[in-house]
Structures are given as structure tokens and as C-alpha cells.
Amino acid sequence: MSRPPSSGATSARARQLRLALAVVVAVLLPLTSRLFGNGSLAFTMFSRSETYRLHVVTADAAGTARRVAPTALAAAVGGTPGDILAGTEQWRHGPFAGLLADHLGEVARFACQLGPGTARADVTLERRQTLDAPVEAVAASARCP
Amino acid sequence: MSVSRDGRVSRHDGDELGRARVALGAIFLLRTTPLLAPFHVSFLADTNPLLGWPHAHARLTPLLPILPAVCLKALCIARTVAAVAFTAGVLAGPAGVVAGALGYLTVTQDPGRLNTTQHVIFLGTMLLAMTDATSRCALVPAPARDLRSSRLLMRVWIASIYFWAGLAKLRPDWLDGRALALFASEGLVRPSLAAALLSTPALRAIAGRAVALGELSLAPLILGRRTRRLGVIAAFGLHATFEVAVSPDLFGWALAALLLGCWEPRGPETAEPIRR
To answer: Do A77 and B215 touch (CB under 8 A)?
Structure first.
């Protein structure tokens, strides 16, 4: 079932809009995501070999430091952050290192929830964008309420 | 209905876009609602009651403003209603744009949840909604505007997906098979296939290069008029292989739905709507 086409002017506008859209979605969006973002909108089609791991250290008011397993933090936090943090004591394969790097301060604040005596939390993210890429490290800290 | 340059009228010209709209709308609903819950598919666990539904767990701060739970619930329901209308072809243009936009808005409320499959489904829905796919295979067809540019938009976008996918694989750790070894070591590849096709470094390198080359080749095949059907068949084959090997969410099914829109009628490139 189809209806008659609309006028020539409408068709011309539609044609211009679609050509512009084609450039945006086929070129600009993936290119921008690849160059300036984490590539999540660049149609990498499950090819990424990015790996990441996390170090979490909490300290009490006296300054006594305690290393925390990210999987324990993941279990305490739950939800999507928990899924992303689980198992990152070791190098973990997944597309979340960029997201974690952007939200590392929040991860540190999550670590504050691990104990009532926690006064400070420090987290360090290590990531490799491919199996050959150098290790990049990002760190964040939070003072716990 | 459209007319070719030699004056012949084809009642079904453009129906392939309508079929793609119906198929992608169905995939949209399967990926965002619990319709497949009885099958206990692991990657669909987040669709109950609807994808993006608010929960009590912690989440990272989204890029967009945080929506109140009641508002998020309403938007998830509105997204589903819009997706049904898009699929059925009732105000399919606005419905598809709304469904796709709400798809992004609701899922990105929980950063880390949006994946490539959802991106393809949401963006594909919005794009099809802006083409003459809304005037074909629809309960209430919208007026046709320009079939040629409709086809061009979908074709260029689909070809670009394969181009970018192939380009992303042109790096040493993919081409020498180490990335595939990583996938296999994590159990992402069906064990029987991994044992047969990825058991040695040489086999992994062959497989890696074949996938990259295959994806890069699909882009020109789909863009070329004479090679388009071959490209569509090859793409179906590629996705069938991926589906057997790694079952990557509903990604292959979403691309298959979109590829239906590239299966144009044989004969001269008509695609000119009747002007009135």
C-alpha cells in the first residue's frame, strides 16, 4: 500500500536533507567518535582489544592504607558500574576504559562506601587501547564524608 | 508507486525500504522489551520490564541531565509505543524519530549500557523514518517524497558501517590474529569453531585478515549498482557466520533487517516518484 508522492518542492527538500544526513551519519559521526571520543559510535563491530585494570586503595582517618579488590567494590556498588568494575584486579578485555577514565572520581566515591571508617579512597586505572599500545594510567581520589 | 525513465510504472518500487522498516522495527521491539524473555537470552536480561527502566542500583553520572524515575518510566513506555507505530506504519516518520531518540535518551541514563547493537537499531530507525520507507508496507502510508535519495541514504550508511568496521581492524593485533585469540580465550567464540578455525597463530591470522578484508569489500559491493545484490548476499553470509561463531547480541539481525532495504528490484535504476 502506498500513497501518491508529494510535490516537487517537498521532494527537493527531502533530497537535500537526506544527502546531508548521509554525510553526517556515514562520515562525520563515526569519524568524530573515532578521533575525539572512545569510538563507541564508530561501528568498530566487536573488533576492540582494549584492556584495563584498576587499583583501589582506601585509608582510614589515621592514614592506614588498605588495598581493596575491585571485584569487592563491584559487589558493593552493583548495577552497571559493578559490571564494569568486576574482575579488574587483572587485565580485563572490554570497551569501558574510556568511560571509567571519565568517571574515575565517581569510582573513588563509590569506594568510600566500603567501610564506615574510610576517610579517603584512591583509584588508579591502567588501560591499553590495543594489545600493542602502551599502558596509560589515570588516577583519582575522593575524601569520604 | 514510481515510474522509470522509460515511462514504466512499478507498483512495488521502494517496497524493499518498507520491508526493512518493518523488520528493523521488530528488532527494535525485541531488543527493548521482554518479548524474548521466555528464551532466557543473556544479553536481553536488561529488557525487563523495558530497556532503560530505572533501577535502585548505583550508576555513573550521565552526560545528559538525570531524569526522575517516573519520567524515565514514561519515556520507556512512549519509546515502545512509538516503535510499535513505526513498525506498523502509522505515523511512521515521527514515530521512528521519537522511538530512536528516546532509545538513546533512556539507555544513556545509565552510562555503559549503550552498545553498538542498540546504536545501530536506534540510528537505523531514525534514518528509515526520514525516508520513503514510511510510505511502503504501512497501515497508514505517508506520502512518498523521493525514493532515490531514500535509497541512497540507507545504502551509504549501511556501506559505511562495513567500511568503519573493516578500518577498525586494520591494526597489527587484529591482522596477526592476537585479538581473535583474546576473544577465544575469554570464551567469546563458540569452542568448536575456535578449535577448528583459531587453533594456531597462522589460522588466527588468516581469519583476522579475512574478516577485515571481507568487511572492507562489502562497502563498495553495496554501493555499486551491479554488485549490490552480491554485496547483500555476502553481508548476510558474514552475519550468519558471526552469529554462529560469537552470537553478538542482535547486531547481525539488525544489519540483516537494514540490508533488506538494499535488495532493490532488478532492472534499470528507476526510483523517480511520479510528480503531481
So the answer is: no
Asked if residue B276 lies in contact with residue A5, where contact means CB atoms within 8 angstroms, the answer is yes
Q: Which residue type occupies B274?
A: I
What are the strands of the beta sheet with B2-3, ordered from one edge? B9-10, B2-3, B272-273
Helix pair angle (B15-32, B116-129), 10° resolution: 140
> Cell numbers at residue B80, please?
515502545
- Separation between Cα atoms, residue B17 and residue B92, nearest integer Å: 12
Residue B274 pLDDT > 60, yes or no? no
- Report the pLDDT value the prediction gives residue A79, as an integer from 0 to 100: 94
> What backbone torsions phi and psi does residue B266 show, to the nearest 5 degrees?
-70, 165
B153–A18 CB contact, under 8 Å: yes
Q: Quick count: other Cβ atoms within 10 Å of Cβ B266?
A: 5
- Per CB-CB distance under 8 Å, the chain B contacts of A7 are 275-276
E strands, chain A, in order: 51-60, 65-68, 92-93, 118-128, 136-143
Smallest Cβ–Cβ distance between A103 and the set B61, B120, B153 belongs to: B61
ipTM of the complex: 0.90
- Could you tell me which residues are beta bridge partners of residue B3? B9, B272
CB contact under 8 A, A46 and B248: yes
Dist. CA B228–CA B214, nearest whole Å: 15
Q: What is the pLDDT of residues B107-146, one digit of tens each?
A: 999 999 999 999 999 999 999 999 999 999 999 999 999 9
Instruction: Dump pLDDT digits (tens) for B138-159.
Output: 999 999 999 999 999 999 999 9
Boundaries of every domain in chain A: 1-43, 50-143
